[in-house]
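Dock INI; give full complex structure.
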Amino acid sequence: MRTWASVLDGTGLRIAAVASRFNHLISLRLLDACRDELRRRGVAEEDLHLAWVPGAFEIPAIARALAASGRYDAVVAVGCVIRGDTPHFDYVCRAVTDGVREAARDTGVPVIFGVLTTDDVDQALARAGMGGENRGVEFARAAVEMAHLRRAIEGPPGARR
Ligand code: INI
Protein backbone atom coordinates (compact mmCIF):
# COMPACT_ATOMS: atom_id res chain seq x y z
CA MET A 1 0.00 0.00 0.00
CA ARG A 2 1.25 3.47 -0.83
CA THR A 3 0.91 5.82 2.10
CA TRP A 4 1.19 9.60 2.13
CA ALA A 5 4.22 10.55 4.19
CA SER A 6 3.73 12.62 7.30
CA VAL A 7 5.88 15.68 6.57
CA LEU A 8 6.69 18.00 9.45
CA ASP A 9 9.05 20.40 7.69
CA GLY A 10 7.45 23.84 7.56
CA THR A 11 9.91 25.45 5.14
CA GLY A 12 8.10 27.65 2.65
CA LEU A 13 4.69 27.30 4.27
CA ARG A 14 2.49 30.31 5.02
CA ILE A 15 0.39 29.93 8.11
CA ALA A 16 -2.22 32.25 9.61
CA ALA A 17 -3.54 32.12 13.14
CA VAL A 18 -6.79 33.60 14.41
CA ALA A 19 -6.86 33.97 18.17
CA SER A 20 -9.55 35.07 20.61
CA ARG A 21 -8.84 37.73 23.24
CA PHE A 22 -11.35 36.27 25.69
CA ASN A 23 -9.22 34.28 28.17
CA HIS A 24 -6.28 35.95 26.43
CA LEU A 25 -3.67 34.60 28.87
CA ILE A 26 -4.50 31.09 27.67
CA SER A 27 -4.65 32.12 24.02
CA LEU A 28 -1.27 33.83 24.32
CA ARG A 29 0.39 30.80 25.90
CA LEU A 30 -1.04 28.50 23.20
CA LEU A 31 0.01 30.93 20.48
CA ASP A 32 3.55 31.29 21.80
CA ALA A 33 4.05 27.53 21.84
CA CYS A 34 2.47 27.20 18.39
CA ARG A 35 4.64 29.94 16.93
CA ASP A 36 7.84 28.53 18.50
CA GLU A 37 7.11 25.10 17.09
CA LEU A 38 6.32 26.48 13.62
CA ARG A 39 9.59 28.46 13.67
CA ARG A 40 11.48 25.32 14.85
CA ARG A 41 10.00 23.47 11.91
CA GLY A 42 11.23 26.06 9.43
CA VAL A 43 8.29 28.42 8.91
CA ALA A 44 9.70 31.92 8.31
CA GLU A 45 8.64 34.66 10.74
CA GLU A 46 7.28 36.79 7.87
CA ASP A 47 5.12 33.86 6.72
CA LEU A 48 3.29 33.75 10.05
CA HIS A 49 0.31 36.09 10.30
CA LEU A 50 -1.98 36.63 13.28
CA ALA A 51 -5.48 38.09 13.59
CA TRP A 52 -7.05 38.75 17.01
CA VAL A 53 -10.83 38.51 17.46
CA PRO A 54 -12.93 39.36 20.55
CA GLY A 55 -14.04 35.84 21.51
CA ALA A 56 -14.22 32.27 20.29
CA PHE A 57 -17.61 32.96 18.75
CA GLU A 58 -15.93 35.35 16.28
CA ILE A 59 -13.20 32.89 15.27
CA PRO A 60 -15.04 31.15 12.39
CA ALA A 61 -15.71 34.29 10.32
CA ILE A 62 -12.06 35.28 10.31
CA ALA A 63 -10.79 31.70 9.96
CA ARG A 64 -12.95 31.43 6.85
CA ALA A 65 -11.74 34.78 5.46
CA LEU A 66 -8.12 33.81 5.98
CA ALA A 67 -8.64 30.37 4.45
CA ALA A 68 -10.59 31.76 1.48
CA SER A 69 -7.93 34.41 0.77
CA GLY A 70 -5.79 31.77 -0.93
CA ARG A 71 -2.73 33.16 0.83
CA TYR A 72 -2.25 30.46 3.45
CA ASP A 73 -1.38 26.78 3.48
CA ALA A 74 -3.15 26.34 6.79
CA VAL A 75 -5.01 28.35 9.40
CA VAL A 76 -4.79 27.74 13.14
CA ALA A 77 -7.77 28.78 15.28
CA VAL A 78 -6.68 29.43 18.85
CA GLY A 79 -8.82 30.21 21.87
CA CYS A 80 -10.29 28.97 25.10
CA VAL A 81 -13.88 28.56 26.23
CA ILE A 82 -14.36 27.94 29.96
CA ARG A 83 -17.59 26.55 31.38
CA GLY A 84 -19.61 28.99 33.48
CA ASP A 85 -22.93 28.83 35.30
CA THR A 86 -25.13 29.29 32.24
CA PRO A 87 -25.60 27.42 28.94
CA HIS A 88 -23.53 30.13 27.19
CA PHE A 89 -20.52 27.77 27.15
CA ASP A 90 -22.42 25.23 25.07
CA TYR A 91 -23.53 27.80 22.51
CA VAL A 92 -20.06 29.28 22.08
CA CYS A 93 -18.48 25.81 21.85
CA ARG A 94 -21.01 24.68 19.28
CA ALA A 95 -20.57 27.82 17.20
CA VAL A 96 -16.79 27.73 17.14
CA THR A 97 -16.60 23.98 16.53
CA ASP A 98 -19.14 24.01 13.69
CA GLY A 99 -17.71 27.21 12.25
CA VAL A 100 -14.12 26.01 12.14
CA ARG A 101 -15.15 22.70 10.60
CA GLU A 102 -17.25 24.48 7.97
CA ALA A 103 -14.46 26.95 7.13
CA ALA A 104 -12.15 24.02 6.39
CA ARG A 105 -14.81 22.05 4.54
CA ASP A 106 -15.94 24.97 2.38
CA THR A 107 -12.47 26.27 1.45
CA GLY A 108 -10.44 23.06 1.38
CA VAL A 109 -7.77 24.78 3.46
CA PRO A 110 -6.84 22.96 6.67
CA VAL A 111 -8.15 24.88 9.67
CA ILE A 112 -6.71 23.48 12.88
CA PHE A 113 -9.00 23.40 15.91
CA GLY A 114 -6.86 24.96 18.61
CA VAL A 115 -9.68 25.98 20.90
CA LEU A 116 -9.63 24.55 24.41
CA THR A 117 -13.04 23.81 25.92
CA THR A 118 -12.61 23.23 29.63
CA ASP A 119 -14.55 23.04 32.88
CA ASP A 120 -12.32 25.55 34.68
CA VAL A 121 -9.23 27.74 34.43
CA ASP A 122 -6.95 25.09 35.94
CA GLN A 123 -7.79 22.63 33.19
CA ALA A 124 -7.08 25.33 30.61
CA LEU A 125 -3.75 26.36 32.17
CA ALA A 126 -2.65 22.72 32.40
CA ARG A 127 -3.18 22.39 28.64
CA ALA A 128 -1.41 25.67 27.97
CA GLY A 129 1.88 24.60 29.48
CA MET A 130 1.38 25.32 33.16
CA GLY A 131 1.97 21.98 34.79
CA GLY A 132 1.29 20.03 31.63
CA GLU A 133 2.01 19.95 27.95
CA ASN A 134 1.25 23.01 25.86
CA ARG A 135 -1.23 22.01 23.19
CA GLY A 136 0.01 24.83 20.97
CA VAL A 137 2.87 22.56 19.92
CA GLU A 138 0.41 19.98 18.64
CA PHE A 139 -1.58 22.66 16.77
CA ALA A 140 1.59 23.73 14.93
CA ARG A 141 2.47 20.17 13.96
CA ALA A 142 -1.07 19.52 12.77
CA ALA A 143 -0.94 22.67 10.61
CA VAL A 144 2.33 21.66 8.94
CA GLU A 145 1.28 18.04 8.43
CA MET A 146 -2.10 18.99 6.99
CA ALA A 147 -0.63 21.66 4.69
CA HIS A 148 1.75 19.06 3.22
CA LEU A 149 -0.94 16.43 2.85
CA ARG A 150 -3.11 18.87 0.94
CA ARG A 151 -0.20 19.83 -1.33
CA ALA A 152 0.67 16.19 -1.93
CA ILE A 153 -2.90 15.31 -2.83
CA GLU A 154 -3.97 18.45 -4.73
CA GLY A 155 -0.66 19.73 -6.05
CA PRO A 156 0.95 23.14 -5.41
CA PRO A 157 -1.35 26.23 -5.29
CA GLY A 158 -0.89 27.10 -9.00
CA ALA A 159 -1.89 23.59 -10.11
CA ARG A 160 -5.18 23.52 -8.20
CA ARG A 161 -8.50 23.71 -9.97
N1 INI B 1 -15.56 33.64 24.50
C1 INI B 1 -14.48 32.86 24.66
O1 INI B 1 -13.60 32.85 23.79
N2 INI B 1 -14.34 32.08 25.76
C2 INI B 1 -15.28 32.06 26.74
O2 INI B 1 -15.07 31.32 27.75
C3 INI B 1 -16.43 32.87 26.61
N3 INI B 1 -17.43 32.88 27.64
O3 INI B 1 -17.31 32.13 28.61
O4 INI B 1 -18.40 33.63 27.57
C4 INI B 1 -16.55 33.67 25.45
N4 INI B 1 -17.62 34.46 25.26
C5 INI B 1 -17.63 35.54 24.31
C6 INI B 1 -18.07 35.11 22.92
O5 INI B 1 -17.09 34.27 22.32
C7 INI B 1 -18.29 36.32 22.00
O6 INI B 1 -17.09 37.04 21.88
C8 INI B 1 -19.39 37.26 22.51
O7 INI B 1 -20.59 36.56 22.78
C9 INI B 1 -19.68 38.36 21.47
O8 INI B 1 -20.17 37.79 20.24
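Observed: The longest strand covers residues 74-82.
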